[in-house]
Amino acid sequence: MLPLAVIIVLSYLVGSIPTSIIITKFVRGVDVRNFGSGNAGGTNVIRLLGWKVGVFVIALDIFKGYVATMLVTKLMYGPIPFTNVTPFEDITVIRIIAGTAAILGHIWTAFGGFRGGKGIATAGGVLLGLATVEVLVSLGIFALVFILSRYVSLGSISGAVAFPATMFFRHNVCKVDLQGYNTLIFFSIGIALLLLYTHRMNIKRLIEGTENRLTQLRIFDKYKKS
Fold first, then answer.
1. What number is the average pLDDT over the span 138-164?
2. How far apart are CA 4 and CA 80, in angstroms?
3. For the chain, which terminal residue's Cβ has fewer other Cβ atoms within 10 angstroms, N or C?
């Protein structure tokens, strides 16, 4: 069993596993960061190797966040080394901390010169066990915006903003009693701001009209040809 400091380090290292770099080097013998947007994420893998490999990488990145949040934290022992002023049990606070470490690991991976992805998929895996409804709504917003615009970045930005917005709406408008809302809302806003920061260049390109659309997604081509 491990103390909190080690849990944080382990979660960071789990998040740091450079799935896109590993997969592209295995499949094509290249570093995905040398192509397309230069980002070590699933979208760039789709551009380089197609949607099947890209979706596989995205699934692995989601799994990283889930593992750090729900599995690594089970190795924790003893009380947390600070006063828990939140309405959550200590284990939930530990999961929030570990999940944040995993997201930071994905963005600034220790195994890739601290040049990783933008954190959307890993953040989704972290939040899946903490705020399932909000994650599903954000995923729906992402899918809708992407289908209409073909901008993965715009979909990701919209999904990031939708997460705290959905939580706020459910609690304050729909009057759903969300456990630990007063803590989770600040955590969700922090995650959204971090993801907006990692997409800052995409936002600039969207404003300038120079952002690339993802047009290579040909999932249904075989049906169109038949």
1. 95
2. 7
3. C
